[in-house]
Amino acid sequence: xxxxxxxxxxxxxxxxxxxxxxxxxxxxxxxxxxxxxxxxxxxxxxxxxxxxxxxxxxxxxxxxxxxxxxxxxxxxxxxxxxxxxxxxxxxxxxxxxxxxxxxxxxxxxxxxxxxxxxxxxxxxxxxxxxxxxxxxxxxxxxxxxxxxxxxxxxxxxxxxxxxxxxxxxxxxxxxxxxxxxxxxxxxxxxxxxxxxxxxxxxxxxxxxxxxxxxxxxxxxxxxxxxxxxxxxxxxxxxxxxxxxxxxxxxxxxxxxxxxxxxxxxxxxxxxxxxxxxxxxxxxxxxxxxxxxxxxxxxxxxxxxxxxxxxxxxxxxxxxxxxxxxxxxxxxxxxxxxxxxxxxxxxxxxxxxxxxxxxxxxxxxxxxxxxxxxxxxxxxxxxxxxxxxxxxxxxxxxxxxxxxxxxxxxxxxxxxxxxxxxxxxxxxxxxxxxxxxxxxxxxxxxxxxxxxxxxxxxxxxxxxxxxxxxxxxxxxxxxxxxxxxxxxxxxxxxxxxxxxxxxxxxxxxxxxxxxxxxxxxxxxxxxxxxxxxxxxxxxxxxxxxxxxxxxxxxxxxxxxxxxxxxxxxxxxxxxxxxxxxxxxxxxxxxxxxxxxxxxxxxxxxxxxxxxxxxxxxxxxxxxxxxxxxxxxxxxxxxxxxxxxxxxxxxxx
Length: 651
What we know:
This protein has about 650 residues and is of the alpha/beta class. The chain has helices at about 75-80, 105-110, 125-140, 145-160, 180-190, 210-225, 240, 265-270, 280-290, 300-315, 315-330, 330-340, 350-365, 370-390, 400-415, 420-435, 440-450, 465-495, 500-525, 530-545, 560-565, 570-585, 610-615, 625-650, and strands spanning about 30-40, 45-60, 65, 90-100, 110-115, 195-200, 230-235, 245-250, 255-260, 585-590, 605-610. It folds into two domains: about 5-340, P-loop containing nucleotide triphosphate hydrolases (Rossmann fold, 3-Layer(aba) Sandwich); about 350-650, no CATH class. It has 24 helices and eleven strands. The strands form three sheets. A six-stranded mixed β-sheet has the order 5-6-7-3-8-9, with helices on both faces. A three-stranded antiparallel β-sheet has the order 2-1-4, with helices on both faces. The chain is elongated and about 110 Å long.
């Protein structure tokens, strides 16, 4: 990295555990009243209520657990409270307020952060780098590097990660952090923006009881010390983890069964005639009482659940919740003076793509195994192509093999771009999670993704040139692939023996690869599923091969296919360019008896001008710049459509 934490003098202030920037001095309460979520049933198209009139309140320094059986609506409620939209096409009703005020979405994003159930971490980064990039993406440019590093160090200390600061998060190939450590890094990377409200979706999912307690203990320590408001959906915690929370909201079938202090759970259920047995985990017991899915007597379980819901609605505790919420609203004027909901500074929008590029650079140069496999694959296939079309002669019998080799080289490069699908889907998943927290939008993501593929070479490694370094390194991989493939296949097949011809061949292969990867970006943005994206990209490349001009020349290609797909097919222009590069400058000898396959002005010399081959396809010379411009237009079109898809569809 161009900016290392170890390269900055942190002074004595870093020895203090307390990170004052995390202190919550503005948000005192977060309340929700009458929250209901309705969706349309996918089969009957009738409205279906997922949540019904849920109330609650969390104060500074408190942790709330949202519990319920599977399918009870706890994740839907968490998403609704976090202003994420419960589900596609859902309708959310109710008042959700901060200190009695209903904030704008922009204001809410500024004071809150959301940690996904699955860790949104890049395995090739270290813990320290993960927090550093999160800070650079989220914090305003007014926060200097020393200040940023100080915050990172404070979080590492607060979450017990100082000893793992230089450890890789971990990939399937390279072992890194444990599950509990990864979860702590996920939480810490969201706290780098100093949110006042933290939402956690199943923070203990996939962890054993010891790791779950470890993670939630650190979260509780941070919440208490810095007066943060923490709301977590959690499924069947251990007893020790359960009592780390201050409050519990128990829901089942979309309705409240209990809301209040965790230590009051047993007495409340005792009063309803459901005493918690001794030596039993209270969390496990109340989940059993509110769950009807696995009950042997479904009717009795349904009646019991209805009784729990009715008892809560009639209880004095439910009335107390409404009173607590109303008290928060009565302090609205004080809240408006203590907290400005609109005056927020954000990170510099022009620096965000640079940060994304720098992160991609670090990720890519550490991915040695995947890169090495890709290089080996292209090297092997280049040798195969070169030896199949080995040392073609300049006689007319070699004209068709030359054409076949040109088609194979360009089509193969396009088709193998499907290998980019998993990499883009991984980047897209990171974008979805980070954009949902308001770190950056589709424009910054697409700009960074596009620049990674541009041909720019630079050897500077200073922090000020992080953009150039990232583009250079990422692009070196594409350049290396094209140079290796062309360097082996071009000379073995005996294409036009000219330095300019060789460089032009490399240029067409490179632009071909950029266009093919742009198609991958569009298809994978539309269908973010590995199998579907792979299949559709392969199908599209098959279509481009059919209408590109090789299998059926443009002169006789069916009118529909010609005007519908031929001209927007990037392989069309690559194939034309390579054909002109090979045949516009060469002549070929005719067969025995001066029988020439193509009639050209060199027929009297028993030779064939390469221009005759181009004429049979209808290709003209001197249009290389025009064809490159068309190709760049196709690339830009793919990228704009991909940006539009990501902008309109963020899930």
